[in-house]
Amino acid sequence: MGSLTDEAHLLNVFLEGVLGSHRVPSWSHGSARELADRGVWDPLLEASSLEFATITNSNMHTSCAYEILRSGELIGMVVYVSTVIPAMTIFDSRTKAAVAEDVLDADLRQAVEGLKVIGFRYIEDRLCRTLSPYIDPDFGYPLVYFEMLFEWFQGEEMFGPDERLSPWV
């Protein structure tokens, strides 16, 4: 894709169609949280070779979320498959960053490729940290695309102000 500005603009068009305009205070993640609660993407991960534990919590997830296991042990990596738009990312909770697609190990890369084949887009860390035009309605802080697509617990910022990127840079 083009620049970060182009990517952010395209995401804004999709988000406005699904959630409502950021200019109208009644925008909502309601349908995305409902889909997450039903585990709509669980069969897609079950079809992969990944060993995982489902951790989806519709109070905070706008995605279906799966913690990756290795030999039955949690490794701090979470696969997020958005219920807002067809997007996904793999987030390393230890580094608090989305993992670059080109450094994923073989089984994670295979799972990502399986989702991409059916139309999902992998969202890299740079875009995850980019400010969206949406604002937390109760606390007034700007939401990043990670919060809009994958995980947002109202009133709790995922990234601090110095960790967020402006789409106009």
Q: State the major sheet.
A: 6 strands, mixed
Number of domains: 1
Number of strands: 8
Cα(first) to Cα(last) distance is: 16 Å
- The portion of residues forming beta strands comes to 15-25%
How big is the Rg? 15 Å
Label the overall shape. Answer: globular
State the order of secondary-structure elements, H for helix, E for strand. HHHEEEEEHEHEEH
Average pLDDT reading: 87
- Summed up, the helix count is 6
The assigned structural class equals: alpha+beta
Helix content bin: 25-40%
pLDDT < 50 stretches: none
Helices and strands in order, then pairings?
Elements (H helix, E strand, L loop, with lengths): L3 H16 L10 H9 L3 H5 L5 E3 L8 E8 L2 E10 L4 E6 L4 E2 L7 H12 L3 E2 L2 H4 L2 E5 L6 E3 H5 L20
Parallel strand pairs: 4-6
Antiparallel strand pairs: 1-2, 2-3, 3-4, 4-5, 7-8
Structure description:
- The protein is globular and about 45 Å long.
- With 169 residues, the protein is of the alpha+beta class.
- The model has no long low-confidence stretch (mean pLDDT 87).
- The chain has one domain.
- Helices cover 30% and strands 23% of the residues.
- The protein has helices at residues 4-19, 30-38, 42-46, 106-117, 125-128, 145-149; strands at residues 52-54, 63-70, 73-82, 87-92, 97-98, 121-122, 131-135, 142-144.
- The strands form two sheets. Strands 1, 2, 3, 4, 5 and 6 form a six-stranded mixed β-sheet that branches. A two-stranded antiparallel ribbon has the order 7-8.
- The chain is built from six helices and eight strands, in the order H-H-H-E-E-E-E-E-H-E-H-E-E-H.
